[in-house]
Specification:
Mean pLDDT is 84; it is low at 17-25 and 274-281. The chain has helices at residues 2-10, 20-25, 28-68, 73-109, 116-126, 128-155, 161-178, 180-189, 194-207, 209-232, 236-280. The chain is mostly helical and 281 residues long.
Length: 281
């Protein structure tokens, strides 16, 4: 039992750290699973922290979507509108802690040492202002986007072009939603102004389109599998809930940030190194 608790808090002590040279030689897939096997205990702790700050979001989602399952599609659009505005305080509540958690997981993906609680509190505090401002911008745009989608319900038959415009708008709206996967890791990695974080996250969303869709899709695989299981097995829903309560959100962030870190290393880090070499000359 003591060995399990030690591994939970400190990871595997007999597992050597990656050197920079070793990381260059190892495949990213092997690094991913090797680091996960060492850091799963920390991910459990981070998951529990995140779930605590997600409680308003979880409660608000449950309160709105439970009755929405029994109503028509048109009425559901109204529920979505109300839900999106209620999301604003929920997302603001979790913004700063999410930044602190992303900082730690980003270091995990690079196999850098962290002091779990010290680094969490330090980076939650240092990124709080930017995280809150970004999340305010993000959640307000989400809400305005739902207003636009809701308005399409009243003009859908006005012209044959309207459904096409609505489809284009939904595609853009989805890309904006996905841009958050770059924003928070970027925020805790680079010293950038908020406008640059927003701009770069949107550019990466489009420029690294494969990562933009693949990373969230892979992160959702446990949810999809456990949701299918819950349809055929009564205890599947309980397992689904326990998985995300204990580990699921942390694992999802680890998967997503592993991908975004690779994108940053390819584009932003390379540019920074080139700028340093030019300055030295």
């Amino acid at each position: 039992m003591n060995n399990f608790l030690n591994r939970l808090v400190y990871g595997r002590s007999n597992k050597p750290d990656y050197t920079r040279e070793a990381m260059a030689k190892e495949s990213r897939q092997k690094q991913f699973f090797d680091i996960l096997s060492v850091k799963y205990g920390h991910l459990i702790i981070l998951n529990l922290i995140l779930v605590f700050f997600m409680l308003p979001l979880i409660f608000w989602t449950w309160m709105n979507f439970s009755p929405a399952l029994e109503i028509s599609a048109a009425e559901r659009a109204g529920y979505n509108l109300v839900y999106s505005f209620g999301l604003i305080p929920c997302l603001l509540f979790m913004a700063a802690p999410l930044a602190g958690i992303c900082y730690i997981i980003k270091n995990f993906t690079q196999d850098k040492h962290v002091w779990l609680w010290k680094d969490f509190f330090a980076n939650t505090k240092s990124n709080a202002k930017q995280a809150l401002l970004y999340m305010l911008f993000y959640s307000v745009v989400l809400a305005i986007g739902q207003v636009v989608l809701y308005s399409y319900n009243f003009i859908i038959d006005a012209s044959p072009v309207v459904p096409i415009l609505r489809g284009i708008y939904i595609a853009i709206y989805i890309l904006f939603i996905l841009s958050a996967i770059y924003a928070f890791p970027m925020m805790v990695t680079y010293d950038l102004k908020l406008k640059d974080i927003i701009k770069n996250s949107l550019l990466f969303t489009i420029g690294a389109l494969g990562t933009t869709f693949l990373a969230p899709l892979l992160a959702l695989i446990p949810f999809i599998l456990l949701s299918v299981l819950s349809v055929f097995w009564g205890y599947g829903a309980i397992i689904l809930g326990l998985f995300y309560l204990i580990f699921g959100f942390g694992l999802a962030l680890y998967i997503i940030i592993s991908f975004t870190t690779a994108v940053f290393e390819k584009h932003m880090n390379k540019k920074s190194e080139e700028d340093e070499e030019a300055a030295a000359k």
